[in-house]
């Protein structure tokens, strides 16, 4: 993906801490799959603490959810005025680059984020430990100590509080289940959790999870995120079925290249509805781009992509024509039409928020979804643009079991 490095003059004006945060925001917004341990090291090197890093990741990832939900709900409500798709679609070269231009609006000084001071000093700590660059997660082109950003050499040292796993059994493909996750920075130890942090975890079992014990460094953000998660996926009294919500989550995760999230939610989709087995497995094996081509039968309307490593894919145009549901692997034409419409809509809002348009809403309606079900689909796919970014930027998956 594209890289972004502030010029020296901008770094001096903003301070190293805020400059590093802006570059990290660009990474998470536009190509989270390229995240690597060194990116967290760069934040720590400029004075960020682990609590602040988690708060920053939550803020950026939440906004990735919020803008997708807002744009898509506006399209559902009949307002396509802000949607690029309403004017014939967004070209792949016109992906949003708000992070790259946001620096113009920022000044120097100290900002406050979730109770943590954002460091703006120009001196980086001198307590970094020299380590060999380990292989970046599957699908990433960036490895520690190997990437040049806008003419600035990437440091060959990694901050001593960042953990790499050179012998990790990394997954080399998307699977249903069978993956664990390891953090790149230290979670809160289970025996060190405060009462407030235990409350924010919501469920007692989450004290055993390194992922949630890492996120609980910002308990307010985690608690709000968890309650949002539960309401979107567990409140199934009416609206979209749980299986179809999990399909939306799987599409977003497959498109973003989040192997861990895709493994969990593809498995859950099949648990909820066994008839999804073949379709879900095909989605994991072949990718979203191939699934979109299968639905339309149009091999020319999408550019080819290399999905073998789980890299992000793009949808070149909304699917607005009458589509056949044959070949979905689902038991009925109605189920196939719903699958195709949900996959296309989830992919569109994941690729670029404004790409979700009235055309997608119309297709969902024609497939039999009511407005309340479309709201559930939007929230399910949008939420995983939040979850994927946290998983991808704070740690990496590992293969477990056979």
Automatic annotation (TrEMBL):
Sections of the chain in a coiled coil: none
Compositionally biased residues, Polar residues: 140-157
Classification via Pfam families: CMD
One GO MF term: peroxiredoxin activity
Biased segments, Basic and acidic residues type: 292-322
Domain Carboxymuconolactone decarboxylase-like: 219-274
Keyword Oxidoreductase among record annotations: yes
Keywords: Oxidoreductase, Peroxidase
UniProt keyword Oxidoreductase, yes or no: yes
Location of the region described as Disordered in the Swiss-Prot/TrEMBL record: 115-165, 292-333
Protein name: Peroxidase-related enzyme
Origin species: Rothia santali
């Amino acid at each position: 993906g594209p890289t972004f490095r502030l010029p020296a003059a901008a770094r001096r004006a903003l301070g190293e801490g805020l400059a590093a945060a802006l570059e990290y925001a660009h990474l998470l917004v536009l190509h989270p799959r390229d995240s690597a341990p060194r990116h967290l090291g760069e934040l720590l090197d400029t004075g960020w603490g682990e609590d602040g890093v988690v708060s920053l990741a939550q803020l950026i990832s939440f906004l990735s959810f919020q803008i997708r939900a807002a744009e898509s709900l506006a399209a559902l409500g009949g307002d396509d005025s802000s949607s690029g798709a309403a004017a014939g679609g967004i070209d792949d070269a016109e992906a949003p680059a708000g992070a790259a231009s946001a620096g113009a609006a920022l000044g120097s000084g100290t900002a406050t984020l979730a109770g943590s001071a954002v460091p703006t000093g120009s001196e980086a700590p001198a307590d970094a430990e020299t380590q060999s660059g380990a292989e970046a997660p599957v699908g990433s082109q960036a490895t520690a100590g190997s990437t040049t950003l806008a003419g600035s050499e990437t440091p060959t040292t990694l901050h001593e509080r960042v953990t790499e796993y050179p012998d990790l059994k990394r997954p080399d493909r998307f699977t249903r289940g069978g993956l664990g996750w390891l953090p790149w920075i230290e979670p809160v130890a289970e025996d060190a959790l405060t009462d407030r942090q235990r409350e924010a975890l919501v469920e007692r079992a989450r004290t055993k999870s390194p992922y949630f014990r890492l996120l609980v460094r910002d308990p307010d953000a985690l608690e709000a995120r968890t309650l949002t998660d539960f309401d979107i996926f567990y409140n199934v009294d009416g609206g979209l079925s749980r299986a179809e919500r999990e399909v939306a989550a799987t599409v977003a995760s497959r498109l973003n290249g989040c192997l861990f999230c895709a493994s969990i939610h593809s498995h859950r989709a099949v648990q909820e509805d066994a008839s999804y087995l073949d379709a879900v497995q095909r989605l994991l094996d072949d990718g979203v781009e191939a699934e979109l081509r299968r639905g339309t039968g149009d091999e020319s309307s999408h550019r080819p992509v290399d999905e073998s490593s789980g890299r992000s894919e793009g949808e070149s145009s909304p699917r607005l024509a009458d589509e056949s549901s044959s070949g979905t692997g689902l038991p009925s034409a109605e189920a196939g039409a719903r699958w195709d419409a949900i996959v296309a809509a989830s992919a569109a809002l994941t690729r670029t928020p404004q790409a979700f348009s009235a055309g997608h809403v119309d297709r969902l309606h024609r497939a039999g979804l009511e407005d309340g079900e479309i709201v559930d689909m939007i929230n399910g796919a949008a939420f995983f643009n939040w979850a994927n970014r946290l998983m991808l930027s704070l740690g990496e998956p590992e293969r477990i079991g056979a």
